[in-house]
């Protein structure tokens, strides 16, 4: 008779196994994975020990049993306006990293509406919501008591829910200051056509920083990608009074400026300097590498999940200052020529 003992499936690790490996009680393991550890004075060191033991064993709490015990599913929804936007990939990476530390699973929704959010908030599928960079038309009233955290969103529209903001104004000011420091006085501006708080902040900061300069602005739909940006940038750079430096609302739009410049026989940065925003992976791969404002997407995601976990545990979430941004100076910007530097005043439409 054949020995089948070696073919039996391995036993699934349990909370008891985690407790034994971490040197804690099963109750402590349950507290950590329920998100209620803070209220029961489980130290951060103990929580990390439990999570490390769980990862080592491959332990995952069973969602169905946990929902029956705690009235929770262990799932959260991250709502982003466009999942194809590279910046949101950075946010998602941070969300997943932090969610694993809190025993949460994350589902992503793209192109959502106010109705989608309301439906998600009123079902038992999700314990809480993370709402990132919403367009104005996407926001509606969430049901009272909905655990929600807003990322890169207008605090005034969050209805008192915690918000995690980026220092967009500081980043834009640094970008314009960099160009003026190089002697540029005639700027182009490719701004988003979307009605979202994040782009209003960028625009207001640009207008303040560029006051007194010659500015030509064009709007572009970010959701239409590089082709739309290329067409608008071709129009901008084809003008008789073309700008000698262009500030873009994101790096995808900036890549469209690269394509338009090549079509027109212009060199970057000798003929036109270019600055983007986001610091997505392609920014460093462009030729020449793109000067851009780094928005800490991963940190935005991690901070949002930590705030949501605190809400789910019944803890107060204190407001924090906007997350720092920084200008990464690469090879797409250079000093203005004598002709470019001598042009100042006025504005274009």
From TrEMBL:
Say which species the protein is native to. Kitasatospora viridis
Tell me the GO molecular function terms. DNA-binding transcription factor activity; transcription cis-regulatory region binding
Arranged from A to Z, the UniProt key words for this protein are: DNA-binding, Transcription, Transcription regulation
User: Could you identify this protein by its name?
Assistant: LacI family transcriptional regulator
Report the superkingdom from the record: Bacteria
**Is Lyase among this UniProt entry's keywords?**
no
Q: Which SUPFAM superfamilies match?
A: lambda repressor-like DNA-binding domains, Periplasmic binding protein-like I
Q: Name one Pfam family in it.
A: LacI
Q: Where would I find the HTH lacI-type domain in this sequence? A: 13-70
